[in-house]
Amino acid sequence: MTVDREKIRQKLQFMRQELRELKKFQGMDISQFQSNSLYEAAATRMLQVAIEALLDICAHIISREGWGLPKSYVETVELAARNSLIPQQLEDTYKAMARFRNRVVHLYDEVDAAEIWDILQNHLEDFRPFMAAVIRRYLS
């Protein structure tokens, strides 16, 4: 079965949109970020959605390529790395994203503003190599 290129395009576009909005928080002082609970809530949700888009793309490609049936998001990343969908050197980074997404959804009371702020300042670019790899392999 072939991958649905339009579905991948839509997910990538959605991821780009979320990342564009998240970049607005870059350079913001942590005290300013923590002083407004709406900043934290919006950033957390946008991060969750961007990560879910990444994982959805991986899951779609894994399914269509017949690479296996992952039982978790971390396993989804492992299968994607094993099949060179994602850069091997970033496998641990994307596993951390999957774990972070799970914490946001299930252990939301353990995620604090400082952690979100750190991701915003230091890790938004981690999405770029994935996006480039998917475009190169499936949309070029």
TrEMBL record:
<keyword id="KW-0378">Hydrolase</keyword>
<dbReference type="InterPro" id="IPR008201">
    <property type="entry name" value="HepT-like"/>
</dbReference>
<dbReference type="GO" id="GO:0110001">
    <property type="term" value="C:toxin-antitoxin complex"/>
</dbReference>
<dbReference type="InterPro" id="IPR037038">
    <property type="entry name" value="HepT-like_sf"/>
</dbReference>
<keyword id="KW-1277">Toxin-antitoxin system</keyword>
<dbReference type="GO" id="GO:0016787">
    <property type="term" value="F:hydrolase activity"/>
</dbReference>
<comment type="similarity">
    <text>Belongs to the HepT RNase toxin family.</text>
</comment>
<dbReference type="Pfam" id="PF01934">
    <property type="entry name" value="HepT-like"/>
</dbReference>
<dbReference type="GO" id="GO:0004540">
    <property type="term" value="F:RNA nuclease activity"/>
</dbReference>
<dbReference type="InterPro" id="IPR052379">
    <property type="entry name" value="Type_VII_TA_RNase"/>
</dbReference>
<keyword id="KW-0540">Nuclease</keyword>
<protein>
    <recommendedName>
        <fullName>DUF86 domain-containing protein</fullName>
    </recommendedName>
</protein>
